[in-house]
Amino acid sequence: MDSCKYKIYHEDSFDARQNLEDYFSNKSGMVFGDDSIIFPLENLTKTFTEGHIQGNILIELSAGSTIHHLYAVCEFFKHIIVLKTNDRCIMELKRWVDERTGAFEWDHAAKHHADIEEKSDQFQDKDGKVRTALRHVMKCDLEKENIVEPIDLPPADCIIIAWLLEFISKNHDELKNYLRKVSKLLKPGGHLIFMGLLDATYITIGKDKFHILKYDEDFARKALVEEGFVVDNCKVKKRTNVSDLIDYKGMLFIAAHKEK
């Protein structure tokens, strides 16, 4: 199937809960945990515990309704602002934030993070710390120059972009343009964490296949440099799991800072 025939994440109906169950859950047969949960948590924990990245405001943009990567950053920022392009993902995320019945269970990810920190007895505190820091979940529109129009957000000390731009971009120029818009929310000298799927073309959610823009590590690095970022750290994890639900070849983690 040609990628142009796939559904588009922010334009078509996207089952946020099914996405969590298939790619981030603790259920039997879920083969993506090493890539989708442990890899980002390990790299985020190492990056932030080094002490170079902290401040008042962290802005997070990701596909789906994931929160597990926020375990690794919630204690380094006073305020976390989550931006979503998809209404169903906002609803699913707020269900967790408000501790509603039926919210997705993230205990397995909290335990992984506590183990990484060598604080395995403190995993039950993780949810509360994220909820305390997570002040706003907002709709954004990356087609607008100010993606949170009509609001003007204060400049962020750090931005995390996780598995999003490849979902909403139809070509490489579009991805670069979205990156430019997002980076405008960052203060001079601020930090950017970019996590993405390498060499992917589709992801399956339920019965539907959704488009993913294919790119490699070299493209991601160059796109960041062209936008004025200095790459401080880059890690790639090659895929080892076997599943035809998604066709990525590896996971990418980049930590960068914006030159003043």
What features would you highlight for this structure?
27% strand, alpha/beta, 260 residues, 8 helices
Descriptive account of the structure:
- The protein has 260 residues and is α/β, with parallel strands linked by helices.
- 31% of the residues lie in helices and 27% in strands.
- It contains 8 helices and 9 strands.
- It has helices at residues 16-23, 33-49, 87-97, 107-116, 126-133, 165-168, 172-183, 217-226; strands at 55-62, 77-84, 134-139, 156-162, 186-198, 202-205, 208-211, 229-238, 250-258.
- Strand 6 (202-205) and strand 7 (208-211) form a beta hairpin.
- Helix 2 crosses helix 4 (107-116).
- The model has no long low-confidence stretch (mean pLDDT 94).
Question: Could you write a compact summary of the structure shown?
Answer:
The protein is α/β, with parallel strands linked by helices and 260 residues long.
Helix/strand layout:
Elements: H1 16-23, H2 33-49, E1 55-62, E2 77-84, H3 87-97, H4 107-116, H5 126-133, E3 134-139, E4 156-162, H6 165-168, H7 172-183, E5 186-198, E6 202-205, E7 208-211, H8 217-226, E8 229-238, E9 250-258
Parallel strand pairs: 1-2, 1-4, 2-3, 4-5
Antiparallel strand pairs: 5-9, 6-7, 8-9
Helix pairs in contact: 2-4
